[in-house]
Design brief:
It comes from Talaromyces amestolkiae. It contains 24 helices and no strands. It is mainly α. Among the domains are: 31 residues, no CATH class; 116 residues, Helicase, Ruva Protein, domain 3; 128 residues, Cyclin A, domain 1.
Length: 460
């Protein structure tokens, strides 16, 4: 992303969506939804349609350069499946049928089957969106960069198809494509899990039980055991990356030549340089930690949206090592830079509100630390967090700083009328992603290019 180009992201007027509050679905409906996902994937593979994993072609070349210019809209495509043979169907179980009489298996006659239609967890039919179609079809004629840009425009102009719980059949593949995360072999994740407890295991266990503890949607779908496994595997991965490389053995003839060269050479040639030119490996400001408090909340939406732990692991590990490595360093310097940027951006966007908060001693370090570290995942409801992350992964996680400023701007009247704004800022109001995204887009135009460049680089 070029920090010198003037943005036109703010010139795009976003549609406003009325989003009903998330209502927990029953476990039975969740089981039916998971079964529907499995059957849909099987059906598409059987009739020759590309599975969502074909989107790895989009993700193969990495992120590319995220741009600030956004305009356009996504087309709508309806994909249907058809077959002339009706297979044997399985009767419902006694627990589902509500009857004491078991339902017998039946064999249907050969007749034309109605085209399958996509439904959400409540049973209502929904039309397949352009996002879904683009992810299934992949880039046409090798137009990778153009397809990625089209994907970003669709994310900005329309929501990802999801039910009231925020569950979507293709959101996780959208994130993989937007972040450019390559496919990960399942065995690689299993090998990390089978290594047992990492050096950070105790710290992980002290945090996982309280991860989104008051969110019933998260608690019903994600177990603490899966959260522990994923964080422990990431800790092993980061631990291995910090180990010095093992010296490779050379052939005996080469060793003899090196020994003769060392005998005939002056000692100064083989001496190591002294002074501050060599940094110690255990410097806490430069050495990334294998786990810091808050990584459990940052990891939670990945596990909630993913269809497997392997997908969540690949995304989360990529995110903390490539997108926001400064957030997990020992000193968490990236988070502190982000907090200072919240104050600076608020001064530009809303000088009156910033001056009032500063007069009360309320700086971002006192109230915005969780929001910066977790990309607002600490602010419920979870379906709105997923929608906000669609936008952040499309145009850069650095925009989370402006999303926090947007939430402060929406609280403006209440803050200015309060004698103790610290009470209001202890917890932000429920997240409304569409309104926050609209304000964020409008704020981009007001941010100078040099400050925007600092936003882009603050988490590196």
């Amino acid at each position: 992303m070029s920090a010198n180009s003037k943005p036109s992201l703010a010139n795009t007027k976003l549609p406003t969506f009325a989003v009903p509050p998330a209502s927990p679905q029953s476990p039975r409906k969740l089981r039916k939804f998971q079964s529907h996902q499995s059957l849909t994937s099987t059906a598409f593979s059987s009739f020759g349609q590309p599975l969502p994993t074909t989107t790895t072609a989009i993700a193969s070349n990495g992120n590319g350069n995220r741009q600030r210019d956004v305009a356009g809209n996504g087309a709508t495509t309806d994909i249907q499946s058809d077959t002339n043979v009706r297979p044997r169907t399985r009767g419902r179980s006694n627990s589902e049928s509500g009857s004491s009489n078991p339902t017998q298996l039946t064999t249907g006659t050969v007749r034309t089957k109605r085209p399958a239609r996509k439904t959400d967890s409540s049973g209502y039919f929904i039309k397949r969106s352009g996002l879904d179609a683009l992810l299934r079809d992949g880039p046409a004629d090798g137009r990778l960069l153009e397809t990625l840009q089209e994907l970003r425009l669709m994310v900005l102009s329309s929501r990802v198809d999801a039910d009231s719980d925020g569950m979507s059949t293709y959101r996780i593949y959208l994130w993989l494509a937007l972040l450019g995360v390559p496919p990960l072999p399942t065995d690689e994740y299993l090998n990390l899990v089978h290594r047992g407890r990492s050096p950070a295991y105790t710290k992980i266990r002290n945090d996982t039980f309280r991860t989104l503890a008051t969110d019933p949607l998260f608690k019903r779908r994600v177990t603490e055991a899966s959260l522990i496994r994923l964080l422990n595997a990431v800790a092993w991965k980061l631990h291995d990356a910090q180990q010095p490389p093992k010296p490779s053995s050379r052939p005996s003839s080469r060793r003899k030549e090196l020994l003769e060269l060392a005998i005939d050479s002056p000692p100064t040639i083989t001496e190591e340089p002294e002074g501050d030119s060599v940094q110690p490996l255990d410097n806490p400001t430069t050495k990334p930690a294998i786990y810091v408090q808050g990584m459990n909340v940052l990891c939670a939406p990945f596990l909630y949206a993913a269809r497997s732990e392997v997908e969540a692991f690949a995304l989360f590990h990529y995110f903390v090592t490539k997108e926001c490595p400064g957030y997990v360093r020992g000193a968490m310097d990236g988070v502190h830079k982000g907090l200072r940027l919240v104050d600076r951006c608020l001064e530009i966007v809303d000088p009156k509100l910033a001056a009032y908060l500063f007069s009360k001693g309320m700086y971002a370090e006192l109230y915005a630390f969780p929001s910066v570290l977790t990309l607002c995942a600490c602010t419920p409801p979870l379906p709105e967090v997923l929608h906000l992350w669609d936008f952040l992964f499309a145009y850069g996680p650095h925009l989370n700083v402006l999303c926090i400023v947007a939430q402060l701007n929406r609280m403006r009247d209440a803050i200015l009328q309060s004698e103790s704004p610290n009470k209001l800022l202890r917890s932000f109001p429920p997240l409304e992603a569409d309104k926050v995204i609209s304000l964020t887009v409008s704020f981009v135009r007001k941010i100078p290019d040099d400050l925007y460049g600092e936003l882009v680089d603050h988490a590196k």
